[in-house]
Write a structure and sequence with these properties.
Order of helices and strands: HEHEEEHHHEHEEHEEHEE
Shape: rod-shaped
Number of strands: 11
Largest sheet: 5 strands, mixed
Radius of gyration: 47 Å
Helix content: 40-55%
Strand order of the largest sheet: 6-8-9-11-10
Strand content: 15-25%
Oligomer: single chain
CATH architecture of the largest domain: 2-Layer Sandwich
CATH class of the largest domain: Alpha Beta
């Protein structure tokens, strides 16, 4: 279902409701007018009928013809039993041909039975011209439609004005919440309403925000303290195991100690990375400076070329335009290092790594044993495409977190049997 804003929904519902009400009202008005017209015509037919019956009972000659008042009547002898069984007057709408006008017009008809002084029974039918109901319907419909349209537009205009005046505090609150960033310095919540319900909403929002800020600060402190506390015993454990390794022990025990040290070192890297992720998400890297990415990329590339020299990977760096960005130096180095390290770790022997720097983006391309990666999973924490022991599954998640917090667009795509990661700096 397509979302509509509150004002549109109210206007739509108001329009539908008023349209239904006015339609029902117009129908009732029309039938009321028709009934009133029919009553007036029926009254005149009754009077004329009484006059004709009176004349007939007095034995006066009545010429059965059309009168100058557009009345036409017929007096027909009938069986007395028929007259006795039909004592009521019958009214109906019909059509009548007017000879003087040479046309057919709508008429109202009255049928009545009577018995004269000579005990003779007659049926009298009187026709009189009526209004054109079709024309009446069209006229009433036109004026009611015009009235309804003017009334509806007036109601909507007045309602929109009242709505915007009344709901202004709500939209101020919504705008404040849209711009609210947890853990950052935010503008104070505005107090722009004297309406009780809005004041209560403002108070509830403010209290809720304070609780969230407090919980966030406590969580941040807990994670930071816990990570630091874990780091110390890990370092002590590794140091003790290394001391035992330097003693005179069996080869089998030495192998087990080396495996244990490797596991602890993996846990240490994992702990440091999680701590770094927490700091990034908590926006604790506020100091920024203008940096040349070509220089940082070149330094990082040389370091990893030396570390992974045994793989004999061909590395190329193309700088079409030096790219300078305003970013925290530590985060920038972590960002570049992780992407380059990722290209080395998951590469093949005698593989290739290509880094291209443009005026507003950097593209990291590398060969690999694996084919195209799942774009929905590769940036998730602890996702590992390979079983490399040197990978903890947080590198790309760390890259994604840094990009998100610095308005950098991160894209991945598979092209020409190469994995490609692109950093786009459109806002720099």
């Amino acid at each position: 279902m397509k979302n509509r804003n509150l004002l549109t929904s109210i206007i739509l519902r108001t329009t539908i409701t008023i349209t239904i009400i006015l339609s029902v009202w117009a129908s009732l008005v029309f039938f009321a007018i028709i009934n009133e017209v029919n009553d007036e015509i029926d009254d005149s037919l009754d009077l004329y009928c009484d006059y004709l019956i009176s004349q007939k009972k007095q034995g006066k000659e009545i010429i059965e013809t059309q009168t100058n008042s557009n009345n036409v009547f017929f007096i027909t002898p009938v069986d007395i039993n028929t007259a006795l069984s039909n004592q009521k007057s019958y009214y109906r709408d019909t059509m009548i041909y007017l000879y003087d006008k040479m046309e057919t017009e709508p008429a109202r008809a009255l049928t009545q039975y009577f018995i004269d002084e000579g005990n003779r029974a007659y049926k009298i039918e009187i026709f009189t011209s009526s209004i054109e109901k079709k024309d009446l319907i069209e006229t009433i419909a036109w004026w009611l439609f015009t009235l309804a349209l003017i009334l509806l537009l007036t109601i909507i205009i007045v309602y929109v004005w009242i709505y915007k005046k009344s709901m202004k505090p709500l939209y101020l609150l919504l705008n404040w919440q849209k711009n609210y960033n947890l853990g950052k310095k935010n503008q104070p919540l505005p107090q722009m309403s004297s309406i009780k319900e809005f004041q209560e909403l403002y108070i509830a929002t403010n209290q809720s925000t304070q609780r969230v800020e407090k919980a966030f600060e406590e969580q941040k402190n807990f994670i930071g303290n816990a990570s630091h506390e874990i780091q110390t015993p890990l370092a002590i454990s590794i140091n003790r195991l290394e001391n035992i390794l330097n003693q005179d022990i069996s080869e089998e025990l030495a192998e087990e100690i080396v495996k244990t040290i490797s596991t602890l070192e993996h846990l240490t890297r994992l702990n440091k990375t999680l701590l770094l992720l927490t700091k990034i998400e908590n926006n604790q890297f506020l100091e920024k400076e203008n940096l040349s990415l070509a220089s940082i990329v070149n330094n990082s590339m040389e370091v990893f070329k030396e570390i992974y020299e045994y793989k004999n990977i061909k590395v190329s760096l193309e700088v079409e335009s030096d790219l300078n960005v305003n970013i925290n130096k530590t985060l920038c180095e972590v960002l570049i290092n992780n992407l380059i390290k990722n290209a080395f770790i998951h590469n093949i022997e005698n593989g290739e790594i290509s880094i291209k720097i443009y005026s507003n983006k950097i593209v990291f391309s590398n060969t690999s044993k694996s084919n195209e990666l799942d774009t929905e999973k590769i940036f998730q924490r602890f996702f590992k495409e390979s079983s490399s022991n040197s990978s903890i599954g947080l590198g790309l998640s760390l890259v994604k977190s840094i990009c998100n917090n610095n308005n950098i667009k991160l894209d991945y795509y598979w092209k020409n049997n190469l994995h490609n990661f692109c950093l786009c700096f459109f806002n720099y």
